[in-house]
Amino acid sequence: MNLSSEGKEQENIVLTAITSDRNIEVDVSDPEHIKVNYKANVKGSLHEYQGEMDIFSPEAQRELEQTLAVYIENMVEEIAQELQDLRVDSLGVGKHVKKKLGTFEWSEEKWRDEMFPAVDITADVDVTIKDTGLFKTGPGNLK
């Protein structure tokens, strides 16, 4: 993943041995404003890091975990918005909403054309770096 932002040094990370689990929370208390929250826990080994942080310090690892969490949250939300614009429910949001609403209020056409594009989809990601891998690249930091 490229974590670089404008005006900052190049920062790249490679995670391996990634495991994750997710939970989809659906709020249909107001059927006109359905809210879906993807909660995910991601764990992985830090295989390679290119940047200025001392990734071997616990504080830097926590900061990197938070940065990765925000990166993944933004990526999920961007993908979800693009799918909504295309009216393609590849994430399977509809089956979770249908469970909450019940079949009496459900129609595939209404879901695809009206409801899905209006759903508020957010992500809440927790990242844990299980261990640091083999090396860090950067000025004088090959390990």
Shape: elongated
Report Rg: 19 Å
The CA-CA distance between the termini, in Å, is 20 Å
Which structural category do the helix and sheet elements fall into? alpha+beta
- What is the average per-residue confidence, as pLDDT, rounded to a whole number? 86
Largest sheet: 3 strands, mixed
Number of strand elements: 3
Please work out how many helical segments DSSP would assign: 3
Order of helices and strands: EEHHHE
Return residue spans where pLDDT drops below 50 for at least 5 consecutive residues: none
Describe the structure.
The model has no long low-confidence stretch (mean pLDDT about 85). This protein has helices at about 60-85, 95-100, 110-120; strands at about 10-25, 35-50, 120-135. Strand 1 and strand 2 (about 35-50) form a beta hairpin. The protein has a three-stranded mixed β-sheet. The protein is an alpha+beta fold and about 140 residues long.
Helix-strand layout with pairing:
Blueprint: E1 12-27, E2 35-50, H1 58-86, H2 93-101, H3 108-118, E3 120-137
Parallel strand pairs: 2-3
Antiparallel strand pairs: 1-2
